[in-house]
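ENCODED BACKBONE
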Amino acid sequence: MAYENNVIFAAASGNNNNPFNVVNYPAGYDESWTFAVGATDESDQRAKWVQNIKESNYGPGLDFVAPGVTSLVYTTHIGQKSYGDFDGTSAATPHVAGLAALLRSANATLHVEDFQGINKASADKVGGYNYNSDGWHQEMGYGRINAGKALEIVNNWQIDHKTATGGTVVNITTTTMDFIDPGGGIPSGKYSVDRYEIRKTVSLPTGFVQIPGFDKKVYVWGRGINATTGWSQANPNHQVGWCNVMSYTETTAELQTFVYEVWEYPDGAFVGWYPVTPSNVVFAYTIAGATKERFSFFQALPALKIYVFCHHFSSGFHALAKFWNSSIPKSSLNLPLYLPHMPQRPDERVVNHKKKIENGRGSGRELRVEKTAAAADDAPIQRQF
């Protein structure tokens, strides 16, 4: 399956305003294996195209939302040489898939559950909904994805993949379980089991700082498949790694998983411990935090380039690059301006006027390009500000 191969699987939640408040298959198959995506409108509300008939599905299992109405999504038409509007959760889901590819391109070592953890930390809590203590709401999931903030975590934050061995048995439950064999585990079937709940408290690094736009200094999440040697308590159980972060502070995190002592059902012949004994459990978890304060948008990009395209120079022109961001830092930024090759009259050239963005909270700053009456060759123009 995709999850076993560390593949990020995003699926549309559906558009039929499901009366049972659940997302459609396969989006709702399992919260760890697929990412269920809902749609939002221009006001960051749950998208409703036809009241009570065509609305973005919501409920348990919804992970994230993204734009999904015609005024926000414009794409190519299948089989036609044209563009057109696109709506529905099928229009929202490619945003999440694209973001997954973007994050993986920045860091190929990301685990599938790192994608969920990073986006839980970076998603915007839009729409005026009352999100719960875990940052989730039934109509918005963990919020609308924010690619800039997600990239900031991947590019600039300290992301540590950690493991911890052993733990404390806090509960034993005797029951019957249906196991499904993905290959190499307990043969599929019903068994009698003692289910052992194992917990472990781990210490977290110090020195993380609060970054504007994020609600915590440090984020912690578990990594399951191909990482943790403990399973979930799900029944039926697919025998894949599972590590739950029950709670955490800035200094410690409490981890949870399960192991099983298994007997044949109903004859009672002992089968063994699966996947390991309690003392041999390995918890896998990820810690993410910023070690020094950095400005989110500009620091997340290796370079900011402004491309200006224009036709033959006539009487002159201005190229304006304006930036609106509520958290532009006090320190100034030198920006590069790139002008592609373009036809020029021999009596014209382009001169650059160096500008800096200084103390620019929420205000636009301008880069100006002007014609002069001096000669120039026909080579491409590139000036570094």
Observations:
- Confidence is low (pLDDT under 50) at residues 295-385.
